[in-house]
Amino acid sequence: MCRWLAYSGTPVLLDTILYKPTHSLIDQSRFAKLGVETTNGDGFGIGWYTKEAETPALLRDIGPAWNNRNLQELANHVRSPLFFAHIRASTGTAVQQSNCHPFRYGRWMFMHNGAIAAFHLVRRDLLLLVDPALFAGIEGTTDSEVMFYLALTFGLEQDPPAAVARMAGVVERVGRKHGVEFPLQMTLAITEGEHVWAFRYSSERASRSLFYSSRADDVRRLHPDVAFLRDISPETRLIVSEPLDDLPGVWNEVPEDSCKIVGPGVAELRPFAPEPADWWTGDPVNP
Amino acid sequence: MCRWLAYSGTPVLLDTILYKPTHSLIDQSRFAKLGVETTNGDGFGIGWYTKEAETPALLRDIGPAWNNRNLQELANHVRSPLFFAHIRASTGTAVQQSNCHPFRYGRWMFMHNGAIAAFHLVRRDLLLLVDPALFAGIEGTTDSEVMFYLALTFGLEQDPPAAVARMAGVVERVGRKHGVEFPLQMTLAITEGEHVWAFRYSSERASRSLFYSSRADDVRRLHPDVAFLRDISPETRLIVSEPLDDLPGVWNEVPEDSCKIVGPGVAELRPFAPEPADWWTGDPVNP
Amino acid sequence: MCRWLAYSGTPVLLDTILYKPTHSLIDQSRFAKLGVETTNGDGFGIGWYTKEAETPALLRDIGPAWNNRNLQELANHVRSPLFFAHIRASTGTAVQQSNCHPFRYGRWMFMHNGAIAAFHLVRRDLLLLVDPALFAGIEGTTDSEVMFYLALTFGLEQDPPAAVARMAGVVERVGRKHGVEFPLQMTLAITEGEHVWAFRYSSERASRSLFYSSRADDVRRLHPDVAFLRDISPETRLIVSEPLDDLPGVWNEVPEDSCKIVGPGVAELRPFAPEPADWWTGDPVNP
Amino acid sequence: MCRWLAYSGTPVLLDTILYKPTHSLIDQSRFAKLGVETTNGDGFGIGWYTKEAETPALLRDIGPAWNNRNLQELANHVRSPLFFAHIRASTGTAVQQSNCHPFRYGRWMFMHNGAIAAFHLVRRDLLLLVDPALFAGIEGTTDSEVMFYLALTFGLEQDPPAAVARMAGVVERVGRKHGVEFPLQMTLAITEGEHVWAFRYSSERASRSLFYSSRADDVRRLHPDVAFLRDISPETRLIVSEPLDDLPGVWNEVPEDSCKIVGPGVAELRPFAPEPADWWTGDPVNP
After folding, report:
1. Integer Cα distance of C35 and D286 in angstroms
2. Which candidate from A41, A62, A90 shows the least CB-CB separation from D41?
3. pLDDT tier, B34 (very low <50, low <70, confident <90, very high otherwise)
4. Crossing angle for the helix pair B119-129 and A119-129, nearest 10 degrees?
């Protein structure tokens, strides 16, 4: 599948987070430990916020992250208070820039690890449920981007957890109508540039791994010798598919069926469940 | 927009047709004379039939054709009796392999120069008209591929001119419902590996250029010194966006509103007109 | 050949310079007016200085600039007081990232439009003249990068005009020993992050075009309505292969055989001539 | 490092060898078992002979083999009696097409797994030893291509084993002059379109894995149910970095310090040793 990382807090040089840790995301691109695939070499993407524009910047490319020089260049020169990074292992859809995460809509970014099962069977029905006014924004062919546009359709900009619950409910409903037992597998990260919402859920209750870092001041007390920790705010957080190192006391598993929210003044762990979409009958007359 | 070339006849080394002519398709990738754009550098593709498989082979890439070494390698080593070649100038959709022509479905290939006007407005409605059983085969995001899948939906494999007429009618109907005055601009090449159907049509009756070569024996009499002409069958034909050279007596314009068909024992020029799609009301209840 | 642009002055969003002008460098990638080639689609590069690192950042890729989304993303989000941009039209060497300009050595950047004539004949002799301690830094196969490493060998970091004069002298000497009448054609931009040195020279005294902008306060008086001009320092300068627009009074030709230097407190135009390299005999015993 | 495969014998669809086996080269691109790296995703190449040209055709690209559609297309449509395939794991040099194996010179192809140790230290000295008349043909920056050009310099076209012995001797001599203990690590495949010469050698006598297949008629007797084996000539051979499957009796290790030669009427295993290059003194006056 894929691996990803979300950073929020004190502005940091991307390199510090992307390349420096022992088991960095770049390391995971070849040697993932907890993923379905050890190799995540089917494209990558980073998205970061700057002072220069409302919308985040994206760098996405179709080769592996581990040998991409432009990624290393940006990591060495860009500092940001909030960024997403994603390495892709395609589950079948084409390796192309428009299929690389994160996806963007205005100020919003979205990235995903997992899959909609039997996507070729349900893709058309799901696309039909995307708000026609949003439809033209879909540029790629992944299940992930359709999930993003469904969440936007269902109110992501107003209430992210509710919109994701509706999206997940629809994906499960449509999948089951097509005979799929476990339609959805997802860990998600979503941001509007200030907060990060991370979700861990799967229809079979066997979700991909997901971790968040402890409060930075607690971690600092445990590891006073780690230079990076000295300069960051207590609220600085990482949410990651796999721990970036094996420092004790740093990484906490996001439980199944839950949503972790971090941001200024916020560090919340909520239960998450899809909102059943019984209203969808699969009848093209009443979609 | 784009430029393309279709070859049918005596098996020939691709290089002879793709690179050797004065104003070859490779030359057109930088210096097109009759196109809307002089530069066609947003990807390319070739598709060719061999004895090894029922389906044609494709080589497609996202860089310009003029500097692509793999294309030159294949051109120097592949001989084929029927091949398509296409150089792309994007009208806005992403530069990615899945958006490069020719497109393929089983034994069929399809390539296009032109555009569906205001495609972002009509894309969803057109996608809905694609046979759901075919829908999962759509891999890219171009108007051209949607045209191909609509034609497949409307019986391309049974009757290409009729299916293309229905497709064109639907594109015009949907476009006009969305307020587009001239919804369709197209020159098309379609093949099943034996015949080539080429279409020239636009809603505004100002279609992109399209030419077909005269019978090879007639051309040979005119130009007895051209080595290539000595070894090819009388039925060998080229259909091209732009003449590949300025040899007199070789190139004939495909008239507006017409369909040229070539193949074993066939060299036909027919009128072409879209089949009006008044049945489409834009009402999602009765699509 | 190529086209390039060097900016120095008030920190500016790259987009303002790279994309916004009527005849921007991106426009020149398809429609160059003064170059040998109208199409410059064989790769591109930008290099820019930030506060985050001593060395400049590079983004280089092998496709055309005009359709590159990562370039547009960076242009929309990166502000810099000094940056280089280059679009390439290969004169035969491979289209690969390591052949894209600008080249970098420590804090230094170098970009080139032109060619060493008959480079395949002289490449080995020129490579032999590169300081062995620097040799391992050569990553690509262009004449341009060899020119950079020769200039470094001859003291670029101490005295750029003198080092470039020695480099040019050597290139001419070696070329002529190999029977090349006009060995060198160059417009060059070089920077250490503070000053920009631009050179215009060719052995045949028919050099590629090169222009520099007038003092920003003078331009502002002429064009009080141009928003961009209101916010930049008097010393802000552009040096470009082609004027970016047709505003009167803005663009001045760099004369043949000269070197333009800009930077804080510096705006100088000097004569330039290669330093004859009669010491090079072509004898491998005394290279 | 890398993994490679050489096929010689009855013309076969490339797919049969490249994709179909359980542990095919494509599988090895992500899950190599015997290599230094499990992931070989830094580019790939295939080279094959056809009836259309004297020189072999090359398809090389910089992404991973496992997701490359053009490679799969060619594998499905190209039949050849002799082909090379290579997947790359860069040992530091740039990921670019000109660094992808196989390399070609006229009718000759060359591919390599291994490395010249401390190549940055010895590169210049080794390049100086390449015949100046051949020098311009070097297009990339790998140690492997320099080894090829050294072998060409030392008579590869006349006597491959002798030329490779001279090349290896020079690499060891130059390396040791620079203080490198174990200068060379190599498994090599070389062909002129009829025979394949494969070498296994390393300065430390701990060479990368290399295997050759038994005579096809012997294998057929062992595995009468394997369809592919029924249709191939007794002399059909594979030489591979790793066995493509675990069929007993098929794969034989090429011993350390040896050269395996296969071709029409030839199946020979010879000892191999570098030819000491004491004549090289490192003195630029007498190179």
Report:
1. 45
2. A41
3. confident
4. 130
pLDDT, one tens digit per residue, over B182-220 is: 999 999 999 999 999 999 999 999 999 999 999 999 999
For D123, the closest of C94, C136, C141 (CB atoms) is C136
Q: What is the pLDDT of residue C283?
A: 67
**Angstrom distance (rounded) from CA A160 to CA A268:** 14
Taking the whole predicted model, whether its pTM rises above 0.90 is answered as yes
The residue ranges of chain A whose pLDDT is under 50 are: 285-287
Interface test with C, best of D141, D143, D174, D286 (most C CBs within 10 A): D141
The answer to whether D96 contacts chain B (CB < 8 Å) is no
pLDDT of amino acid A286? 46
Q: Which of D120, D128, D132 has its CB closest to that of C136?
A: D120
Question: Which pair of structure tokens corresponds to residue D242?
Answer: 């790793």
Residues of chain C above pLDDT 90, percent: 86
Q: Is C216 helix (H, G, I), strand (E, B) or coil?
A: helix
**Cα separation values, D90 from B279, C264, D220, Å:** 59, 43, 37
Q: How far is C252 from chain A (nearest CA, A)?
A: 31
Interchain contact, C67 vs B95, CB within 8 Å = yes
Q: Which DSSP category does D98 fall into?
A: G
How distant, in Å, are the alpha carbons of A30, A114, A148, D134 from that of A35?
11, 10, 22, 48
pLDDT in tens, D80-115: 999 999 999 987 789 999 999 999 999 999 999 999
- Residue of chain B nearest C40, judged by CA positions: B30
The Cα-based distances of A269 to A168, A252, A253 in angstroms read: 18, 11, 11
Distances (CA, A) of C52 to A231, B89, B211, C194, D244: 16, 38, 57, 15, 49
- The residue of chain A with its CA nearest to that of B130 is A124
Domains observed in chain C: 3-279 (3.60.20.10)
- Which residue of C134, C141, C143, C153 is the best one to mutate when testing the D interface, meaning the one whose CB has the most D CBs within 10 A? C141
Give the residue from B96, D203, D65, C80 showing the smallest Cα distance to D74: D65
D153-178 mean pLDDT: 98
Mean pLDDT across the stretch C63-89? 97
Contact predicate C5/C241, CB 8 Å? yes
